[in-house]
Amino acid sequence: MDQRFSIGIDVGGTKIAAGVVALPTGELFEKRVQPTHPERGGRAVLDDVLALARELMRATPHPVACVGLGVCELVDLCGNVTSGFTVPWQGLPVQAALSEIAPAVVESDVRAHARAEARFGLGRRYRDFVFVTLGTGISACLVQDGAPYPGARGNALVLASAPLMLVDETGHRTQQVLEEFASGSAIAHRFGADRAEAVFEAAQAGDPRAITILRTAGQAIGNSIGFLCNVLDPEAVLIGGGLGSASSVFWDELVASTREHIWSDETRALPIVRAALGNDAGIIGAAVMAHERLVETRRH
Question: How is the chain split among helix, strand and coil, in percent rounded to 5?
Answer without folding.
Answer: 45, 25, 30
